[in-house]
Amino acid sequence: MRDFTHAIPTTRVLFGSGTITRLADEARTLGMARALVLSTSQQKPQAHLASSHLEGRGAGIFAGAVMHTPTSVTEHAIADARSLGVDGFISIGGGSTTGLGKALALRTGLPHISIPTTYAGSEMTPILGETADGTKKTVRDIRVLPNTVIYDVDLTLQLPPRMSGVSGLNAIAHAVEAHYAYDTSPIVQLMAEEGIRALYTGLPLVVAQPNNKDARSNALYGAWLCAACLGQTTMALHHKLCHVLGGSFDLPHAETHAIVLPHALAYNARAVPDNIARIKRAIGHDAPAIALYELNRAFGAPTALRDLGMPESGVEHAVALALKDPYQNPRLLEVDSLRHLLMNAWLGARPA
Ligand code: NAD
Fold it and tell me: Whose CA is nearest to atom 17 of ligand 1?
């Protein structure tokens, strides 16, 4: 075994069915008497549901969260928060809404309760990606880690089946890269293996039977573990490629992860055979890259970057950006191999 460092994260986690009913107690524990509830416009009904469980500790709703946390939206929310005199934030939604909660907590120093409704995993990480003037910047700061995370499986039942599938693959991507992160630890690897197993076995049932609570619970549990891995390690090539592609071509987050993951995993596989052995064990398949590619296909989700609207000329641009300021990766990054990887992902070919 090699040397490692493992930091204990400080987020309080509640997991179960109907856990949103404990929101008022959690708000009280954090000293919130006038919380601002955050959501996207689509999830305003869930924001109202959260408010209804605050037992008078809610000051209002800001339903303007959007993808990539634009600073203009954050400033708008801060203005609302000031005029309402709020003393904390409750985000209910996917990574976009969690991101807004993190941006507000960072700027105000106020507590943040996150109630995730996708499998993206932002709620367990000290990472915030913000967009200003068309550029996305990422900061890693412990102050953006939510104080409390309430996982309520009931809130995930409405997540559309295909979105559930690709969001689950987004979560698996965190655990795949945590396996071979330069700063991984034995505890992270345990969580990563278990997270992949729970999602890989649970997602097909979630997609086939979106109201199956046991399947949803299994998937959400897996997503939590994968999110914890994301928060405790530094990601490699796969995440770099997705950041580059999302930022350059405005591609949808979860779908991009789902398409790129099998190709990035295949690229790194020979460099880290021991770690890949754990991923094989979690998935129960000798060729995990192929298995993940087939899983995405089975969801009926796009398997090609060109189907998301990326132009072919973008491949060269993405290779250049991925090599500029690269993330630490177990396999050396070479122009030709990366071009091959991205062209396969663009075409939707089976991973090499
Ligand atoms: P999202 O938050 O943008 O949600 C996608 C859509 O699904 C939205 O319209 C949302 O309202 C809707 N939705 C979410 N949950 C739903 C539910 N249960 N029922 C019905 N509709 C629902 O998508 P996402 O993939 O969760 O998050 C993507 C964003 O999160 C990106 O901006 C990404 O960069 C960020 N992210 C950040 C981190 C981090 O650690 N900082 C980690 C993962 C993702």
Answer: 159
Confirm or reject: Cβ of 64 under 6 Å from ligand 1: no
Alpha-carbon gap, residue 230 to 224, rounded angstroms: 10
What is 161-347's CATH number, 3.60.21.10, 1.20.1090.10, 3.40.50.2300, 3.90.550.10?
Answer: 1.20.1090.10
**pLDDT at residue 328, as a whole number:** 94
Q: Per-domain residue ranges for the chain?
A: 12-156, 161-347
pLDDT at 1 over 80: no
114 CB within 6 A, ligand 1 = no
Residue 297 tokens read as: 């296909």
CATH topology classification for 12-156: Rossmann fold (3.40.50)
User: Which atom number of ligand 1 is nearest to the Cα of residue 230?
Assistant: 40
pLDDT at 325: 85
Looking only at the bridges linking them, the beta strands covering 58-62 and 88-93 are unpaired
Angle at 131 between CA 106 and CA 110, to 5 degrees: 15
Please compute the mean of the pLDDT values over residues 186-195 and round it to a whole number: 97
Residue 239 Cβ contacting ligand 1 at under 6 Å: no
